Amino acid sequence: MKDDKTLKVIKIIKMAAADFIQLESNGASLITITDVRLSKDENCANILFTVLPEEKEEAVLEFMKRMRSEFRQYIKTKTRLGRIPTFDFQIDFGEKHRQKIDLISLKS
Description:
single chain; alpha+beta; GMP Synthetase, Chain A, domain 3; three-stranded mixed beta sheet; 22% strand
């Protein structure tokens, strides 16, 4: 179970990532931040996201990975986090699978 401080850090990173993407992306696809996974020592954060249309996933993933240092700088200037973790971005395949299951169950 995560403590309140960890949950607060996750929420701050998730909101900042959504704001950053809105500012930096070209708008050719819908990028949704679905989760942030923070390591126990809070030194690493994996930011999970989904992309619509799905054909743009790889391009968006490459974009996000290129923007890691800019995002870290954005976090430094826009939040009051004391210790800034290193960031990585990943496509949230779990969320994609859940959405497909929901769609199948609606059809039956």
